[in-house]
Amino acid sequence: MNSRFKALLALLLAVPVLWLAPTDAEAQGRPAAVGVDTVRTEPLSQTVPVIGRLVARQAGAVSTRIEGLVDVMTVDVGDRVEKDDVVAKLRDDLLGAQRDEARAALTAAQARITSAEAEIALARQERDRQAGLKGSSAFSQARFDDADQTLLRAEADAASARAAAAEAQAKLSAWQIRIQDATIRAPYPGVVTVKHVARGTYVSPGEPIVDLVNDVDLEVEADVPATRLGGLQAGVVIEISVDNKVRQFGVVRAVVPSENPLTRTRAVRFTPNFGGPGTGLAAGQTVTVHLPVGEERTVVTVHKDAVSAIHGGHQVFVVIDGAATPRRIRIGESVGSRFEVLNGLDAGEVVVTRGNERLRPGQPVNPIQNGGDGSNATPPADGTGQQSARQTATKSEG
């Protein structure tokens, strides 16, 4: 027998010995330290994922209402502004001069009103004096008629002066409005995404100055198949996830009554609870909407780390009287980090989630709290393991 064969034989004989070598805990007669988790009941609703997008309820160009030369730009791309913040100013020196001209015209018209009212008073006094002479030899019908006509002319002049004053006041108001419009303000809070002009640019009415997006007032829009619209009435709460992160809740705001004939989908708007500025969200960003496809039901769940595949089925180690007892179970839907248990486990039982790979049936164990997904291994006082957190099971479209 050569030396190579002897070495190979020695290696093969050593393998069973290494495989059956006891663990450190067994060798020292101590229970194995294992992480555990409690089997619990929780609500389960099946959902189907639909790709949606974030849309801003307020977005677009901030335009000028008047023509003029851009004198000051107070914002740049990426700047955040609040409602009524100044984004640009047009030169308003000529506007100020025209406003002063209109104010002077108003002053002149008001002076004419004062003069006309004085003429009315004199004309009325003369007509009354002539009327008092009626029945005497000093009365002259011609003089009375002249006084009456003079009063009428004075009243007409006063009316014309008042009309001129009203016109001057309207022109003055118009120039004051134009001066106000020379300062262009943000109509709503948001972030500047495009800067269309620079200082020195001459702009016409309606020309965009900047583009503004309100990234706080965001909605989710998703094109939902017509067959999935049955449970999406206004006010229904659904789950939304951004970048496959923690899911958040949203509410159905409206189902747009217009169907795409090519895709057989309708746009549905959801109001999410993403929070305010600083969330890092952007209009056009992709999100996943988890649409309900069935009634919510209560199920028994077990942590995924506790489940091992064995002989075409699944097995867990249940902690009973301080020992690990293997048990075959049948699992159903995936519920986040847990599996639905169809049979084999009851709520409140404690299963091993860490260290179960090296356990032997009946081996003593030392359970460590929070060994699974952070939940306490000790069952609640009612023994049901009922959790208040709402979970969903994702069901893919066929």
Structural commentary:
By secondary structure, the protein is an alpha+beta fold. The protein folds into 4 domains: 26-46 and 296-394, conserved putative lor/sdh protein from methanococcus maripaludis s2 fold, CATH 2.40.420.20; 47-57 and 215-292, Efflux pump adaptor protein, beta barrel domain (Elongation Factor Tu (Ef-tu), domain 3); 60-90 and 183-212, OB fold (Dihydrolipoamide Acetyltransferase, E2P) (Beta Barrel), CATH 2.40.50; 93-181. Helix content is 26%, strand content 38%. The chain has helices at 3-19, 24-27, 93-132, 141-181, and strands at residues 32-38, 40-56, 59-63, 68-73, 80-81, 86-90, 183-185, 190-195, 202-203, 208-213, 218-225, 237-242, 248-260, 265-272, 286-292, 297-303, 308-310, 313-320, 323-335, 338-343, 350-354, 365-368, 391-394. The protein has a 6-stranded antiparallel barrel with strand order 2-11-14-13-12-15. A 4-stranded antiparallel β-sheet has the order 3-10-8-5, with no helix packed on it. It has a 4-stranded antiparallel β-sheet with strand order 7-6-4-9. A hairpin with a 2-residue loop joins strand 17 and strand 18 (313-320). Helix 3 (93-132) runs antiparallel to helix 4. The longest helix has 41 residues, at 141-181. The relative contact order is 0.21. The model is unreliable at 12-21 and 371-398 (pLDDT under 50).
